[in-house]
Amino acid sequence: MNVGEALAHEFAAGGSLPFRELAGDPCDLSRRGAMCAVTTLTLRRTAAGDASFLLHWRDPAKVTHAGGLYQVMPVGIFQPAGGNPASVRSDLSLWRSMAREFSEELLGTPEDHRDLGRPLDYGRWPFYRALTAARAAGKLRVTCVGLGVDPLTFAADVLAVAVFDGDVFDGLFAGLVAANAEGRVIGPGAPAVPGVPGVPFTGGAVRRLAGGAEPMQAAGAAVLQLAWRHRRSLLR
What we know:
The protein is built from 9 helices and 10 strands. The protein has helices at residues 2-13, 18-23, 85-90, 94-107, 126-136, 166-172, 203-210, 218-229, 231-234, and strands spanning 36-45, 51-53, 55-58, 70-72, 75-77, 140-149, 156-165, 179-180, 183-185, 199-200.
C-alpha cells in the first residue's frame, strides 16, 4: 500500500517521476510487495442468452481508493476473514473470498465475521452453501480471464467473471441493495429486463465504460473488455 499510494501522489503532482522509475516494471512482482484484489464481473444470464451486469459507483466520502469511479462488483482484497492464524489457513481460497464479497457488496451484510476470533464456518453459512450448490449444478459459472496491474497505483487484480442463471441470481440476491458501505449499486444504464437491475451487457455499454466515456477503474475496464471478447464461451 505504501508503494502504491506514493506512486499515485507522485503522478498526480506532475513533474518528474523518480519513485515510479525506481519501482520499475509494474508487472515485476519480484521487486515489490503487492496487494491483490479479486475483481469480479457479475453477469445475470437470461434463458434467451442475453445478459446484464452490475456496476458500482465508489463514493469518495466512503472509500480511500478509487473514489468517484465506476467499478464492476463485487471486488475485494484477497485476505482472510479474520486476523487469527487459523483464518489465514482457512481462507486461502479465491472462492471463499469472492463469496464474502458477494454477501457484503450485493446484500449489504456487515463484516462482523472479522471479530469472531475463530475461522468463519463456511459449512454452516446458508448463503455460501447456496452459492456453492449453484456452482456444482452448473447454474453459476466462475471463470478467471486474466491478471492485471493498475497503471496508476500498481495494485494487482485477479480478473474474474461470474455468470448466474437468471433464476438463481434472482433467488440469491432478492435483497440486492441500492447502496452499500462503499457506494451506490447499479450505476448508469437502464435495466436489461424490466424489474432486473443492471446494465445491458452489450458492445455499446462495454465501449462506453471501458473506452473512457465514463470514469471507470482500470481493473473494471479490463475485465469488461475481456468478458466481451470471450462472451460466446462465457454465456454458453
